[in-house]
Specification:
The complex is a heterodimer of chains A (626) and B (351). Chain A contains 23 helices and 24 strands. Chain A is of the alpha/beta class. Chain A folds into four domains: 156 residues, no CATH class; 102 residues, no CATH class; 170 residues, FAD/NAD(P)-binding domain; 145 residues, FAD/NAD(P)-binding domain, CATH 3.50.50.60. Chain A has a five-stranded parallel sheet with strand order 3-2-1-4-16, with helices on one face. In chain A, strands 6-14-7-8-9 form a five-stranded parallel sheet. In chain B, helix 1 packs across helix 7. Chain B has a single domain, classed as Rossmann fold, CATH 3.40.50. In chain B, strand 5 and strand 6 form a beta hairpin. The longest helix of chain B is centred in the first third of the chain and has 15 residues. With 351 residues, chain B is of the alpha/beta class. Classes of the chains: A alpha/beta (626), B alpha/beta (351).
Chain lengths: 626, 351
Amino acid sequence: MSAGTPTLEQSTAPDKHSNGVGHSGDGAGMPPTDISNPAYFHKVVDCQWACPAHTPVPEYIRLIAAGRYTDAYMVNWQSNVFPGILGRTCDRPCEPACRRGRVEAEPVAICRLKRVAADNKDDIGALLPAKPLKKNGKRVALIGAGPASLTVVRDLAPLGYELVLFDGDRRGGGMIRSQIPRFRLPEEVIDEEVGYILDRGFVETRFGTRVESMTQLLSEKFDAVFVGSGAPRGRDLDIPGRSEAAKNIHIGIDWLSNVSFGHIEKIGRRVIVLGGGNTAMDCCRTSRRLGGEDVKVIVRSGFDEMKASPWEKEDAMHEGIPIFNFLVPKEFTHKDGKLTGVIFEKVVAKKDEKGRRQLLPSGEPDQHFECDDVLVAVGQENAFPWIERDCGIEFDKWNMPKVNEVTFQSTNPKIFFGGDAAFGPKNIIWAVAHGHDAAVSIDKFCNGEDVAKRPPPMTHLMSQKMGIHEWSYDNAPSNDLRHKVPMREQAIALKSIKAEVELGFDRKLGYAETQRCLNCDVQTVFEANLCIECDACMDICPVDCITFTPNAPEPMLRMMLTAPAENLTQDLYVSTPLKTHRVLVKDEDVCLHCGLCAERCPTGAWDMQKFLLEMTHAGEARCSRA
Amino acid sequence: MTWITKPKLHHPKLPVNALGFTHRDYEGAVSTLCAGCGHDSISAAIMQACFEIDLPPHRLAKLSGIGCSSKTPTYFLGQSHGFNSVHGRMPSVLTGANLANRELVYMGISGDGDSASIGLGQFAHCIRRGVNMVYIVENNGVYGLTKGQFSATADKGSKSKKGVSNPDSPMDLVSLALIAGASFVGRSFSGDKKQLVELIKAAIAHKGAAFLDVISPCIAFNNHAGSTKSFDYVREHNEAVNALEFIEGKDEITIDHDPGTTINVTQHDGSVLRLKKLAEDHDPTDRASVMNFIQRHNARGEIVTGLLYVEPDSEDLHDRLGVTARPLNALSDEDLCPGSAALDKINAGLR
């Protein structure tokens, strides 16, 4: 040990306040977070931010927890139009985004909770918009009665538009009705939710006849036209043997729609499905119910790179359908005009010099898989043979119409596109989002307004404090792991094309699952001038997301926190400078929104405030908050 | 207090210590103190310190008396031993426990009422005897449980929440501990966790009576203008004498780059206290000069914090008494009753 020397230059001494109380890096640090920008808190609600239609997910989950199924349904219906349908079939971009998945193993079963609302609601007839007292004199044609067009109808009809809806099929619903197998989505659900839009006398339907000419349609003097005709053409596979064995080779989506409409009721015992998307999963599972006993899915790429949603792959494998990967179809084998199988080349994935992934022959001998039928589900394409190229719509080099990504307007200002017809195959929730945006544009266009000026979303921010330690939401998150959706017994499920496989959560299980939701829309709002820097919030935070620190540029600041903020997709909430010149930094990444920071705060500097963001739909855009 | 229990979910990337524990494994029950209480910050610092030195929770015995401060052992290290004793009598219970089993780490948690008023005698004698312990006083200058009367550590002239001035002289526990012979004396502030955590780590490693006076603002009754124990006042008048870095014996000691401003104090267990000097005239190993230093700064109205005094070659009660190294509960019947031959031998020695 050594005694210190008494001579010491004051300037060589480090800051005497060892917790960093001192001056921040004079402007070099992060600027204070602007919480008045709706995007900031919206982004914290990961599920809502990820949802193309920006459904206020935690809001409806709380309503389900409260047993207010009808209200929960209506929150959904306002935003995504098809809660019962989407609660069974949505591609659920919300779930991979769910914060719960980052603090625990799996996200909240958001999609299946939506179904709980739909299954348990009361009659909503009285809650639907009333028929307008008078028409506004504008006529709009809608082509294709799928989710995009139906959304436009839903948004525009109450405003007094005269709407004419065209579809080649005899009933509305589009791909919802034709391509999604009944064992995933019962027909009654489609009838009900399509009915809320079509059966209320809002719209003239011209079903059963295809629109064959845009020019002819335009001659009917519509004020605007919406094209929501989907991506109706299944890609074919032009390899040797295709024409010879044509009888047993089917295009996936066409085959699915023939099954849906009852034209096909059987398939061979051995079936190969080519393709790795969700359509392929529907094809193989449908085959299992139509006599296919030995059904295989064979994909070009690796299992992990398949386009199908992970849960759809799981569902298929659960039904005894193996998935073979890295096999490129080379030839259909046939005998006497009858398909006998498919020859595949084995490939491996390698990266080229530029780092792009390539599938290269492995050098192993080709493999022959025997089968009776092949379903080709290798992609879908748009097709617009009915749009004359001289009617003012420009097409790009891929033969797709040039459509504005925000307004959905084509180069012919009165013609709008949405859904798969606009930017190629996506899924229902995207079609709905497109429909809302296109409806806003059509409404603005018909009223002589600038379609490029988009209405801001409506936001509310309100304290949830009810008492000293009481909040208007269940702030204690449940420790339950994700609950599994009960399924119909497989032996029974595989016997009928119409027996719905998933039984859905009952009310009790649904409630248990709602309690896993972290209420990410109940925001931690910080008022710097009330803070006395007692550290109480930092000490209590169960996920170490709060730090008092000198300010610094973002990359540095992220590493200076109690727990490093390594998830760059999640923002830091930075306060204005505090009395000690430090700032409060909250990493939004894994915040549980449990409100303990606010409960332990002696001065009310923290408050839990519900941020409700609702997208502005057509009509509202002009009437109330233009 | 809080109505919900702290959620079990934690940050997915929490560091773990040598025992495989995260800092959350050192938690206790949820605090029932007022929101923002400085005592909760001290609890958090204790948890952090125990986590950082890889202390197995069951190796700690936490003892306390009565008062807000004395409630806090419930709120940290839920897996350790605890004894909530009589008002002002924690030092006796701690001394007894320590004599019975010296293998545990003893932490006495007390407050200004518990130690500077009713327990003043116990406090002084426990220090005087050199009981191997960390004695923490969570010092807020008021009786919080009885709604804010001045305690014995309230400064003369300090104002109560109602605006009444305190006419009496304060009891300075740091000075008292030095006079009583404490071999490790520090003062800190609940609002300066970085300083506090290092002091607690060093105090745990210290052999002998280690005393920490931690100023801990009472949000409900003593955090107003005119108080000398408020966040604002303490921050304004805080004069840290040094910045401590606690280096465990097993860690490699790097060569110091700036010997003029840093001293290393090696404790008996091999741990090193690296002190970056912040005050020119402070020598932490010279008891008389430290007492002088403290009086000088007290007179200027400054609150000196940091490691104020340390005696590297300290001894403890067991050394002085020469008692068995084994815990009493590990002594066998033969040890305790060695037989008449042994008794005869002892008696012979006394003739």
